[in-house]
Design a protein that fits this description.
By secondary structure, the protein is of the alpha/beta class. The chain is built from 5 helices and 5 strands.
Length: 122
């Protein structure tokens, strides 16, 4: 059975790139172009990892983390921030909020897959 990842990012192009890389690695992929879209997918299905951008219109990645950590079914699911943010304060805020890791955009596919595999066995 493949593991399910939910990608939350407002960049369609980036989600397509991630989709190609991840689906060829044996994971099932769910995509959400906003935090609102992502929250609608938290319907009880098993999600093994969240990949979340920080900067998005409306609610941001930190808002998503707060919702996930407050949800009984997903509060222990690992979260990787996938962002161009370089601010060390934001990294610390993410860590304090329960984020498991940080992948810097732009990224190499191999780096992204290594980070995913660190938290999820395909």
């Amino acid at each position: 059975m493949s593991k399910t990842l939910l990608v939350v990012d407002d960049s369609i192009i980036l989600m397509e790139i991630i989709g190609l890389a991840i689906e060829n690695s044996g994971y099932k992929l769910l995509l959400a172009g906003s935090v609102n879209d992502a929250l609608k997918q938290l319907d009880g299905q098993k999600i093994h990892l969240f990949l979340v951008d920080i900067n998005m219109p409306g609610m941001d990645g930190f808002d998503f983390v707060k919702h996930v950590k407050g949800h009984s079914l997903y509060k222990h699911t690992p979260i990787l921030m996938l962002t161009s943010e370089l601010n060390p304060i934001k990294k610390q805020v993410a860590k304090d909020a329960g984020v498991s890791g940080w992948v810097q955009k732009p990224f190499k596919v191999s780096v992204l897959l290594d980070a995913i595999d660190k938290f999820v066995d395909p």
